[in-house]
Amino acid sequence: METRSLLLLLFAITSLFISAIGGQLYLGRWKLLKRSIGISAMHMQLLPNDKMIMFDRTDFGPSNLSLPEGKCISESHNTDCFCHSVEFDSINGNIRPLTILTDTWCSSGALSENGVLVQSGGYRLGERVVRSFNPCADCDWVEDANGLITPRWYASNQVLPDGKKFIVVGGRYQFNYEFIPKTSSSDQTLYQLPFLKETRYSPLIPNNLYPFLHLSADGNLFVFANDRAILLDYVNNKVVKNYPVMPGGISRNYPSTGSSALLPLILHGNFSIIPNAEVFICGGTLPDSNQKADAGEFIAASKSCGRLVINTANPSWEMEEMPMNRVMGDMIMLPTGDVLIINGAAKGTAGWNSAREPVLSPVLYRPNTPKNNNTSRFEIMSPSTIPRLYHSTAHLISDGRVLVGGSNPNRKYNFTALYPTELSLEAFYPPYLSSNTSRPSITAIVPGVNLGYKQKFSMWFQLKEEESLGNIYVTMVAPSFTTHSLAMNQRLLVLAMDDNGVQNVAAGNNYVVHVNTPATPALAPAGYYQLFVVHEGVPSKATWVHIK
Ligand SMILES: *[C@@H]1O[C@H](CO)[C@@H](O)[C@H](O)[C@H]1NC(C)=O
Ligand SMILES: *[C@@H]1O[C@H](CO)[C@@H](O)[C@H](O)[C@H]1NC(C)=O
Ligand SMILES: *[C@@H]1O[C@H](CO)[C@@H](O)[C@H](O)[C@H]1NC(C)=O
Ligand SMILES: *[C@@H]1O[C@H](CO)[C@@H](O)[C@H](O)[C@H]1NC(C)=O
Ligand SMILES: *[C@@H]1O[C@H](CO)[C@@H](O)[C@H](O)[C@H]1NC(C)=O
Ligand SMILES: *[C@@H]1O[C@H](CO)[C@@H](O)[C@H](O)[C@H]1NC(C)=O
């Protein structure tokens, strides 16, 4: 019975994914939203009020915005009165300058259970800072100079199941991890993680920065660096599993910079059945590509991708090839459960002036297209006109578009370099926004948007008058902290629907579907999620829900 409904669900999803093949309309489109947002969007995090927090770095000279209230930053004989962080309202497009006074270059972050962005590390005076940003109309950054025990430059963060604590892993010369926020000022516990030392290409080439982190369905942490991976029981500081080496000899982490995403967690109606947690890693390049780029040789980036189910007894990599080579690609989960691979270059590596041949076309990856069908899981989308190389970002917003910003924040915001500093902000419209099938709209969540675990709730939605009911599923997306081609904390769950399916409840094409919330906080850490209903491959706009 369970197997049958799982198969039916898989079949439903698969047929949806396959249905969107065709002409130009189906390749997505682009729109330039702002020629300049004043800063370069090197880091992005969406808050539950639909405002996107963006920032670059504070030590690089004149952005195109001044700090609010005449403030200035003084660091090593430099006075900088320019702004390096903004809040972008994804609903009305307004921009509000924000105040960050310490350097956030190559930092990390996550959203906490109460919707506060907790962000950590950076460079020099910013390297041990933990900053927080409350989602409210006139809030600004609050900085704690001694929030971290040790400097964290190029570390990765993961929100833990309770949504209140975060693990911060690695960083340059940091073969260890710690937790934030500290429970007391005497909490100075640093946990060693030799794996981060072992996975360097050489002591001089630490090409395993910004390790990929994914919280597995059992609450342990998947950590990937270079081409190796472990499952870490971070509570007991124990490696509980060593995964097979990813084939191909490609390095996937900074500056060889591929990308990694946890594929949709497909939840079962029976709460005791744990879904597969499957990691998907694409792109990157050979480990010495950065050194070669410094010497003027820009070698081809990798096409290869691998999938690994991390919570089975004998995991093994399933390898695939993208239609194009890509380094510095971002992997963004769309509300449908498809993966958008966007930004980056076909040659070279991360680093200024270290890449060539910008890849302007995103690729859509449909994870559930069966392998034995010659239909590719990949589809090439319409190109942008703006190269998005080093320090570019992408982030899903609640209306189903993907915001794209940043690239090459060169020293002093050089706009005449080969690949100039980019202050522009674009939106990519995935193919579903050009579909002839109209968007469903969520009209109510009953009993309400505050959810608990192992519960049922009802989602009411409406279709256009003339539309007949097709395939329906419901997804829940955790907003990510995106930087350096890595969407930290990105998570998408396909919720289990009741056996009695979707009911037509009233005139005006109104329907209700009964769904289960996730069983445990390991599947969905406490906090805010965007809830979508997908009808015939076209998602609604999101309704924010909270789970704890
Ligand atoms: C493969 O996918 C195509 C496109 O959706 C479909 O028409 C075809 O029936 C599939 N073939 C097999 C063997 O599953
Ligand atoms: C900087 O802002 C001014 C207006 O304030 C605008 O005219 C100019 O184009 C901007 N420059 C860049 C590079 O964005
Ligand atoms: C739920 O799954 C568990 C574990 O597979 C199984 O033992 C149990 O019988 C299932 N419950 C129902 C109601 O099917
Ligand atoms: C897939 O393509 C190969 C070569 O083009 C062909 O031999 C094979 O029959 C095809 N399989 C299916 C399921 O269409
Ligand atoms: C900007 O970059 C170009 C090309 O590298 C260089 O020639 C120029 O001097 C730079 N301008 C500034 C202001 O640094
Ligand atoms: C979508 O609708 C337009 C206008 O009616 C039509 O020209 C187009 O062929 C349709 N596309 C598909 C794939 O049905």
UniProtKB/TrEMBL annotation:
All copies of the Galactose oxidase-like Early set domain together span: 439-547
Pfam families, alphabetized = Glyoxal_oxid_N (PF07250), GO-like_E_set (PF09118)
What UniProt keywords apply to this chain's record, in alphabetical order? Signal
UniProt xrefs under InterPro entries = Gal_Oxase/kelch_b-propeller, Gal_Oxidase_central_sf, Glyoxal_oxidase_N, GO-like_E_set, Ig-like_fold, Ig_E-set
Give start and end of each Glyoxal oxidase N-terminal domain: 42-432
Q: What is this protein called?
A: Galactose oxidase-like Early set domain-containing protein
